[in-house]
């Protein structure tokens, strides 16, 4: 897969499809692009060109722990720059969980760049904010405090980043642990603040500013509660609510079996939504 130089960072990306409207999909968690590749292939088969990429600090892209913005705001701006380079704007932008948050910030920070939003398994609430803050940042801060950057390199997440892109070890080891902790602490605070927001990282007032049409599919567990998705669809001026998975789990994260079984329905829903949005835009 090719690499793009995006704001001085090497970003691993892939394009599926050769014609049709542009779509950019991002996975949940801190996963790489392969997690959404099956969905992307089926969307491309329906007549779209789909851009997948490994966000910085994920997959086979560069690890760069720096920046004044939150990591999600950085990801949103990276995606905008990547799509600009590919002449793929405006685009339908979407994702699951953390990919959903990235997509919302993309639309908020770059008005007019999103033709529409495809948002599923929306994250919100105090439990999700605290759990994810610890997992993504708190545990990394503790590793750096206890064993410096060598210990950070041995954490599960960064060990995988080094395996996928060996140069990431040198990049991490060159960091001052104090600077690493400073940035991670800043990113952690972003998540902690999200506990009182309708969606982690975005206020009610900000959501009401997003003009792009949005297809919202709520989640079904304690980190992606149905209520969070319902609230998001109501706050977005052009939000559509579509309940797809009905079984609700009293778990931090529900098994993905049912989502996998519903993948065909999810793709059909998104394809129909995008076709309708295109028709409205050209009317």
Count the E strands. 8
Spatial order of the strands forming the largest sheet: 1-2-4-3-5-6-7-8
Please give the count of helices.
Answer: 11
Rg, nearest Å: 18 Å
CATH architecture of the largest domain: 3-Layer(aba) Sandwich
Q: How many domain units?
A: 2
Distance between the termini: 37 Å
CATH fold-level label of the largest domain: Rossmann fold
As residue ranges, the low-confidence spans are: none
The CATH homologous superfamily of the largest domain is termed Alpha/Beta hydrolase fold, catalytic domain
The average pLDDT value, as a whole number, equals 95
Q: Class by helix and strand content?
A: alpha/beta
Q: Class of the largest domain in CATH?
A: Alpha Beta
Q: What's the topology here?
A:
Layout: E1 3-6, E2 9-16, E3 22-26, H1 37-45, E4 49-53, H2 71-85, E5 91-96, H3 98-109, E6 114-120, H4 126-153, H5 156-164, H6 167-173, H7 177-193, H8 204-207, E7 214-217, H9 226-235, E8 239-241, H10 257-261, H11 263-282
Parallel strand pairs: 3-4, 3-5, 5-6, 6-7, 7-8
Antiparallel strand pairs: 1-2, 2-4
Helix pairs in contact: 2-3, 4-7
